[in-house]
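Ticket #4471: structure export looks truncated?
Reporter: QA, pipeline team
Priority: medium

Steps to reproduce: submit the single chain below to the structure queue and open the exported record.
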Amino acid sequence: MSILAPDTDPLLARPNADRLAYATGMLLDAQDFSDEQTYHRGRLARALAFLAGPGTLAGLRVEHVPGSAEQVEEIRVQPGLAVDRLGRLIELPRPACLRLPRWYAALAAVGAGSAAAQASYDALAGFVSPRFTEAGTALPARALVADVFLRFVACPRGLTPSFAQGPFDALNAVSTARLRDAYELQLIARPGLDDGYDGLPLPPGGAALGDATATPGARRDALQDAVLLGWSASGHAGGTDEDGGLEPAPEHPAELADHSAVFLARVLLPVDGATPPARTADTPLVDNWGRRFLPPAALFAQWAGS
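Actual output as written to the record:
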């Protein structure tokens, strides 16, 4: 299935909220209908981006599936729903997988193995989430660190007869009839991690709201200030790539071109100290808890006992 380039989505420019105004006898073309879709998609996306922010709404658990005679070793993502940084919904309707042996072989071939070696670390405790640490899972002596990202893509579907586009005179021209909101999974090795940068997402509001030991008044003040300052931090309607586009989030590696992608999980792949590093017999570990979670209101009500 083919996918459209990310920059073809008009929501990337965070369009102005211009609604179409109709009148009897008005001439309409394809751009008018596209603009109407963009208006409704853009309003919903803006609401989701500010109400929830990017992260996991439901599902999307990442698992390691061991290889066997009948099964290729995989990193498998269970079905679920996420919101990306532009407010677009990304849905996995069924399990999706990344074949680990093929991915690792391709990585080990880059730069004579230097790419894999640069993403391998001895001290791993600083690169996992607090929940993963508190679970007491034994970390390997050395592991390659890679992150799973999910991004929104649009896939052209079906063809329908249309007028030829451009300087052509054709009676059998066709155009794409549908665009399906779809997804793409990426597993990206993470070189450059250190004591000052773990490559994990910041907690929602963590930098602005402070820690849980603050007084109620201080937390109220921080919350109000965060709301007042939230507009400039999230961009504005009518923005363009020339205005800066989407800056990379703290969890985005340099090689990830799509800065709207959502972080899902961190994979620790045990390796030795050679160059290129060879995989050991230890089982890969998956840390699902470093991502941003977006609990629905019903779960908050249940948690509060109402």
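Status: closed, not a bug. The export was complete when the record was re-opened. Leaving a note from the reviewer for reference: The chain has a mean pLDDT of 88.
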